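Hi X.,

You mentioned you wanted examples for the new student's onboarding notes, showing what a folding record looks like when two proteins sit in one file. Here is a clean example. The first protein comes first, with its sequence line followed by its structure tokens.
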Amino acid sequence: MANPLWGKYEQLRPAQIAAIRARTPIAYLPWGALEWHSYHAPIGLDGIKAHGLCEALAKETGGVVLPAVYVGTDTIKPYKGFHHTIEHNAETVTKLCLEFLQQLADEDFKVIVLVTGHYGGCGRSLSQQPSPNRFVGNAGFGAAGRRISQESCGARRDFFSTSIQTRIGGFEYAAGRTRNHSG
């Protein structure tokens, strides 16, 4: 059985997870919301881009990438006309996120990198919590995201989420349908 440097947690065998953790005890936790992103983008864009960035990081550093967690708060659901959005309350998001972090720490991961593709989610909820010793902070898109955005769209940074999607996606756009928000 091969012992890879990194892997997708749900696809690895127990011995592979143990070998990766022994070498590089990093767990990447992508987080996103299910919400309207216009006609050109999938509903799960937040988690897709967070997961893609986690994979890119893990390929460079080693570690395991968990499946994206689609539990977001502060989505666009309250705004009239934005359908296809699943909203959770902040307490639910915070509790679930803390449980993920605690269980990953219990699994003996020394570094847990939380990458949020949606600001109104786990990262913001945790930024308002006292930090336990094992939790340092979260990672948004930062320099890696800006680099991917710049490579994909050049100066058109207003299309940041779309550029991330283009770079790490693998799905088709519904081109030309971006104005009507009621779909």
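Then the second protein repeats the pattern, sequence line and then tokens:
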Amino acid sequence: GYQPGAAITGIQSDIHLYPVWQPITHKVRFLDGSQEALPAATVNHGGKVLPAQALADTGDKTFVGWYYNGAPFNWETAIEKDYDLIAEWAVKATPPQPTPTPEPSPQATQEATPTPKPSATGDDCDAGDADACQSATPTPSETAKKKDLAYTGSDVLGLLAPALALAVLGGTALLARRRR
């Protein structure tokens, strides 16, 4: 048989040669990792490959599409060489789990501290004034009435910050006035 490019020798009579055309074809392979995911397609030179079917999603991955050189393959590409198309996958997003609502904790209540009546002092009790000592201790019904009242005692530290701020402001104003 004749090989392309070989010289024809030994012809002793007229011969008729007829060309036999074979199309140039290219393979388009569909890979998932290093193995074939689908059978390869054979495409004539300059032709187009038909869009390949999508692969089924796996438990934790979703099929995105067929990629070539890191980009989605354009199915309108004229095939002029062999192609290896790679299956691209995305990890399925897991739906966010609801955060449990914390149970409300019981609110602490402040017990009213019994306050001695102004007329009674420790000296009165020491002196043996039983009536004064008795009036200094509130009765249970008085304590019950005071439970819902807010604490209104004096807080010296709470007054310290505004007093210092006022003193600094006054001193600054005095210095500014003297400089004029």
